[in-house]
Amino acid sequence: MDNQLEKINTLVYETSKEASCVVAGQIADLIRQKAAENKPCVLGLATGSTPTSVYAELVRLHKEEGLSFKNVVTFNLDEYYPMAADALQSYVRFMHELLFDSVDILPENINIPDGTVAKTAVADYCKGYEDKIKSYGGLDLQILGIGRTGHIGFNEPGSGQKSRTRMVTLDHLTITDAASDFFGEEFVPRKAITMGVGTIMEAKQIILMAWGEGKSHIIRKTVEGDISDHVPATYLQNHGNTTFYLDAAAASELTRYKTPWLVRECDWTDQHLIKRALIWLSQKEKKPILKLTTRDYAENGMSDLVTEYDSAYNINVKVFNQLRHTITGWPGGKQNDSYVNRPEPSPVYPKRVIIFSPHPDDDVISMGGTFIRLSDHGHEVHVAYQTSGNIAVFDDDVVRFADFMNDFTDMFGLDKNTAQTMFNDIQEKIKNKKAGEVDAPEVQKIKGLIRRGEAKAGCRYVSEKVVSHFLDMPFYETGTIKKKPLSTEDIQIIKDLLTEVKPHQVYAAGDLSDPHGTHRVCLDAIFRAIQELKHEEWMQECSVWLYRGAWHEWEIENIDMAVPLSPDELLRKRRAIFKHQSQKDRPLFPGSDSREFWQRAEERNRGTAKAFDALGFPEYEAIEAFKRWHF
Ligand code: F6R
After folding, report:
1. What letter would DSSP give residue 562?
2. pTM of the shown model
3. How far is the CA of 238 from the centre of ligand 1 (A)?
């Protein structure tokens, strides 16, 4: 049993899609079983990004397999407060759009906490909500997501195990996580109405789902940690019929995946596992790889590995060399070079390179140093900006640019009336926009242009020779956080560019395990385009390298190419990032990290260099990291 440290029944699936289908199947079975018994099926439902695929599958089961919701009664966990039912971010709207409007549930059977009740009436309202759940004999099944604070519903840290439906204050981390849905942190309501932990715990069955590595740490605490009000989800350890459904990324911090050698015998023929284990051991023992001893192995559950390879030193040298061969100052390969161990083969020079950048600044933030090197080494570098990034621009920047255009027109004697009318119109539109509302099309366009100008400036700063392409992929152009699904049109745009340039190298933002978000969709489009083109002759010589987005770095064991940067190059990278002025000081969507993008980038690159240094490699100023994608 490798899950001996787990205190909650936990099932892990390769993808969130797979897990969601299983969960939807469970719900459907319960609905049918209750219908056969002529009883209502009382479901507790959650919102947020986690359950969306479950709802999509339930809709499919209704439309294609005749699953009826006539006997279903629902109680949603929570709602922001205050919140109008028709607001873009309301959970009422969410539930109707994703589920209720597409199935045959009776409107009178839908219950969602009301974000419009008067403050003075909230306590009574909450009691009524509880009473109504009880009147149906309680919840048959409660579906949950989990917040990074460990909240279930909106029961933030500090909530008691016996808490009931009530008004609560949201945790700061929850507010930053919700910021993108509300077009900025300042627009996120500070309060919510939520079912209590006690209310949830009374459900006969509970299913909690979590996807993506962003949830992996809180999942580990919840599943393997002690019960504590610091992580309200740990109360679920006391519930007799709870199952967690995770995708591989959300499960990645569980001991059975993270350090399996601590809980079971491992198959030490797996080279990647050996590499992972050695890096872990070196970091844990705070010793360079080549100094690890048989005793270090033995004390950390890895003596069978030593037995397999005869001596600790044999394994140390093997892994050390593997890592050594990932380090190269020649990301495009080295001209006339016979050394065979470089990550990138060198037969062609100069190479045609495409750097795909999901937003207009990921190129410089995540691989600015390598971008500069490729260009300095004489390669033909193209940057393809996949989306306009227009939702991440502040309104006052739009007014500033429209004003500039107005004065510019005036100064050079161009058609003044048109410019003035447009400026007035834009100012008016921004003035009348309510918090959280979608921008007018002209405003969206100007925001896109602002970012386009910055991206061009970034490229020019690297070299006049860099070619920029603005793909404006249609899936992104909704003006809201919620995007359209990827279409063949999106993929064709990528295919056209690849076919035009016929690159020898492709770089793409590879946030592989992030189940939602623009980066993931942008990467999917590239993967699908490459799959369709992979038999082309020019593709046979093309290597694809994945860099990570703004937030994380590849784990050392997953790095296939590590490009060291000198202090000067790091400074040039910083200046290229500075060209993205609309994202400086405080971007519209900063996430939970208060550092500026250039600071995050530098700390991350310095961190990677330090990690290599600690493993026993030379001490570089900074390192950018890439993982090879085999297509
Ligand atoms: C939503 C809710 C929350 C979410 C949690 C995870 O009704 O009660 O507990 O389940 O914040 O949110 P996502 O799924 O967006 O990561």
Report:
1. E
2. 0.84
3. 21
Q: What gap in Å lies between CA 536 and CA 138, rounded to an integer?
A: 60
Q: How does the average pLDDT of the chain come out, rounded?
A: 93
Interval between CA 154 and ligand 1 midpoint (Å): 8
Give the residue, out of 77, 156, 166, 209, with the most ligand 1 atoms within 8 A of its beta carbon, to mutate for a pocket test.
77
Catalytic residue numbers, as ranges: 156
Residue with more model confidence, 437 or 455: 455
Give me the pLDDT at residue 514, please. 58
Atom 12 of ligand 1: nearest residue by CA position:
48
Q: What pLDDT is stored for residue 238 in this prediction? A: 98
CA-proximal residue: ligand 1, atom 3 (nearest): 153
Alpha carbon dihedral 14, 17, 19, 22, in 10-degree steps, equals -130
d(CA 358, CA 548): 11
Q: Which residues line ligand 1 (CB under 6 A)?
A: 46-50, 77-78, 145-147, 151-154
Look up residue 188 and give its amino acid.
V
The alpha carbon of 526 and the centre of ligand 1 are apart by a number of angstroms equal to: 29
Domain with CATH 3.40.50.10320 in the chain: 352-393+440-629
Which of 47, 76, 246 has most ligand 1 atoms within 8 Å of CB, for mutation? 47
CATH assignment of 9-255, given 3.10.450.50, 3.40.50.1360, 3.30.470.20, 3.40.50.300? 3.40.50.1360
- Say which CATH class 352-393+440-629 falls into: alpha beta
Query: Whose Cα sits closest to atom 8 in ligand 1?
Result: 153
| Residue-wise pLDDT tens digits, 234-258 | 999 999 999 999 999 999 999 999 9
**Parts of the chain belonging to CATH 3.40.50.1360:** 9-255
- Ligand 1 nearest-atom number relative to CA 151: 9
Distance (Å) of CA 605 to CA 7, 545, 599: 37, 17, 10
pLDDT for 121? 98
Task: Please give the Cα distance from 353 to 502 (Å, whole number).
Answer: 9
Task: Spell 356-376 as b/e; 16+ CB within 10 A means b.
Answer: bbbbbbbbbbbbbbbbbbbbe
- pLDDT for the residue numbered 590: 66
pLDDT at residue 506 is higher than 60:
yes
16, 20, 43, 50, best to mutate for ligand 1 pocket (most atoms within 8 Å of CB): 50
